[in-house]
Amino acid sequence: MEAPLLADKEQEKWGSPSYEYVGRVGSVYPPVSSIATDVSVEEIRSASTFSDYYPPSIHGALISSPEPAPNEQLVVYPGGYGGDTGGRNSQGFGKPILDEVEIRELLIDHVGHRCCWGSRPARTWKICAIEDCNVYVGTLETFIEERETTRQTQPYLGGPIDGRNNGPELGTWELDLRSEFPLLFIPHKETKTKVPHSEAVEKCAGCEGRGEVPCPTCNTGLDPGFYREKQMTPCSVCHGRGLIAHRDGSDTKCINCKGEGAIPCLTCGSHGLIKCDSCARKGSLLTCNIAVVRWRTLSTRKVSATSGAASVPDEVFHKARGVQLCNTQAHQCTPAYFADSFLLNKFSSEVIADRPPVPPTARVICERHAISVVPVTRVTMTKNNHFFSFYVIGLSRDVYIKDYPSEFCWGLCPCLEWLKLW
């Protein structure tokens, strides 16, 4: 009979674990016992790893509107999982074997990086249980290209323009942007480019082609197209009197308005018109279409965890190092297929079904789908009827612990290390 997935000698020592999968938002949890018997070690050995292959068609000229491309699934089986990760068994892959000494050393090292945690529980409490709580992580990355057009205007200073007389204006998806095309699955990139043959000269609507607009200070409330010259405003120094009153009862002529009681408009100098900011007093505008192109990656992540690892946040498993069971790349990925594991096939289907919506102004360039297994060991320690648990997660053996029994800062000291996941 085949051994369970990622089985090791510790499992025989502490007994075969039997957990029920608990529900978690955005995750699918098949029974662990079924997965353990359905996925063989040989199946893991032949699973694909990270692929740097870029389909050549992706780098072709983007000169047509978005159309569904042939759904050709790319699956690479290079054999093996890449570099040595340490702690593997003689079969080529297996969960890193941890004994009590290594477990305690990992916990002591983790506690040592927390300045307000005492090391006594890590050193003296008894390890009473070691359980395997392996977790499956599924991801779907959808790399899209989004295009939209905006109208740009600027003052027309004269000279030739690239208008429709030079040829038909290109559509948004007819632009060849091969020189700007980024690496696949980058988080975000944006570029702007002028659409050829889209320039045109228009009369400025703000000033009706005059290059000037009525002064908003002294020409308010007039009909469009009309203005008044030589409008004066009351002097703010003498309040329109033309004289400055003194305490002895005498008056002197206001120097600010020269005794007139009014001064020219400070905004336009009583000219009645000011410069039109839209056309810079030119009266004409040069307009053109600007294509705004964005490349970005939409991601879907799911976690399948046993009840023993239910208290660990999903983000911890997404950051952990695991072993990829499959990695496929295509224009539109389909669920992965495992010959002897219906439940892993179902988990893959759930990840694909949760594909994020693509905006109507975008097209899908490529997708990448991966399923990984993250080794997780739950360790329970006890002393005088007191218990606490922690987890050794991933191939790098990171420690996650939420309720350590010896904390002294209560969140008041500057370190605040207890708030971190790792």
From TrEMBL:
InterPro entries xrefs: SSUH2_homolog
Protein name listed in UniProt: Protein SSUH2 homolog
Annotated source species: Aristolochia fimbriata
Higher taxonomy: Eukaryota, Viridiplantae, Streptophyta, Embryophyta, Tracheophyta
